[in-house]
Amino acid sequence: MAAIMNASIFLPWLSGLGTGLGLFAAVGAQSAFILRQGLQRAHIGSVLAVCAAADALCIALSVMAWRTLSSHAPWIMPAVAWSGAVFLALYAARAARRAWSAGSALAPARQAAGTRRAAMLGALGFTVINPHFWMDVILVGSLAQGFGHNAAAYGAGAMTASLLWLLALGGGARLLRPLFRDPLAWRLLDGGMAIVMAALACRLLARVL
Hints:
The chain is an all-alpha fold. Helix content is about 80%, strand content about 0%.
């Protein structure tokens, strides 16, 4: 019985982990900011703490909010599924276009923040003042509802993915920098993201069709 219960929690967690990696492990302003802070060793610990806390809090609130909204307004779930599928399809198309053409993903953050306060404010800004971030969080909360009572495990998996990506960016910045000087590395990453986003769009549509 214990093994069955563990499996029932592990599978949603693993699914949340996969979805989270597909959503969060993306080329963007936050990733560029963390890479640059890590490369210059400019208060990277504080930057990672702010980003991780913001991600975890918003994911948890999204999962809990959708439980309440789905019971009081059942029409919201199909509406979000359709809008989310459209967004993901467009996101996949943009990622595929970036993968097809060369470009730099480090442009959104040209300089590392010098003071700890500036670094923390920058991390918060690049995280929450970003429509893609909010759409990602809303999608996680929506997808978590497909796991019923194990929605929290799905959310925990997404939080784990966020933390892993942040640690990889911050702790491995010096190792990643030589690799991502080559535009081909960004193109390969964007190509993988395009595939993941397209698959998520299909999954959302499958829930409402």
